[in-house]
Amino acid sequence: MKKEMWSEDGQELAKRDTSNGAEKYSARAPDDFADHDKLDSVYNLPVTADRTAKWYYSAFHNVTAMVGAGVLGLPYAFKYLLWPGGIVTIVLSYVISLYTLWQLCILHEDRGKRFNRYHELGSHAFGQRRGWWIITIPQLVVMVGLGITYTVTGGRSMHYVWQQLACCDTCTQCRPFGLSAWIIVFAAAQLILIQCPNFNSLTVVSLSAAIMSLAYSTIAFGASMDAGLHYTDRSKIDYTLNREPAFSGVFGVFNALGTVAFAYGGHNVVLEIQATLPHPPSTVKPMMKGVYVAYVVVLWCYFSVSIAGYWAFGYDVQDNILQTVGKPKWLIVMANLMVVVHVIGSFQVYTMPVLDMIEHGFAKRGINLTTLPARLLYRSAYVVLISFVACTIPFFGSLMGFIGAFGTGPTTFWLPAVIYLVLRKPGVGNIHFWASWICIILGVAVTILGSIGGLVDIIESASTYKFYQ
Question: Per the database record, which ranges form the Amino acid transporter transmembrane domain (predicted)?
């Protein structure tokens, strides 16, 4: 009888042979870990072309991917979840997402192979074709959806800054510089940065974005505390849903669950980030070191902004805490500029795996898209397409409650646990067995309820949607 033995960092340590009552251990040599896909050694694909990353690179990338502009909407989620529900939801989301992120990281190296992409690990667990579809559809929903959302967010933030600094009170002279124009300006910056050949070439961009996310989250926290202490009548702050119709309140709770879940979308790129680390030695320890640093930043940004924002304004908080605060104007303008820098970096981090999928797919057919002329052509076309969608439906961000629950719910909260159970097969007496099932049950519930709430919100808000603003 043979049983596989695993270390906590995911490396296969030994084959345990108990057929004759003796236990034998033989460590697997680190360099036995081979790429799952041989195309990685032939083509300079975006995810695997440069594997010289340091552990702190993974921290930059994870902060940029995780702490998105969605953090500014967390106080609005508390509006419907209220104090007890909001605290419980954000704590559980934090703990579960960190646990499932650990599961993905240790499974990056499994049975002698490196799985450099989320869909590769899915194929390893569920079978080639089935696994690819189970993972790729929700992963693309998140990554392409975030590309569109961040393009709209960047355009809106620049438009807001323009209105505050250069517009007259009536804004009639500013109509030629509407939202669509600023989305195009944002896209122009992306046309340049998207030519970065691989993940490691984004390190400076990602570091800048990570610093900006920490900075504008801190501004949101400080401005909320200042408003709550000096500019609001505390006796009139309402922390109930008494002004909300019962029907809207229930589905508002569902949508709020999706909003919180959507804030933890970094799992969709974590294996691609880990693939940039050199091996040997095992990449799990340096990757988790970067993850833990990133989650300290996540802890501060998410908890401070959500709690301070809801405390300051209660039921009257808007879906963007910076818009709710509104003053001092110079500080909010600065925070919006920081949002622009951050979403520029986040766009690149979430787009790089999409580009890798495209180049990988063509490489299978013998077509090399990694050359500079090919990159200039098809990557520019991708930015133009994303920008066209963003200009056409600039309300796309409001759809992300539904799309986020549909995409982020599975890829963050329960698919990693399912994959872990399939590949590691922990026994009923193992804590990871029960922890994984808790993640699956809660994650599926959030996916279903969040999708329902997001869909109802879309239906209720459809009359307010305007194309080409």
Answer: 52-453
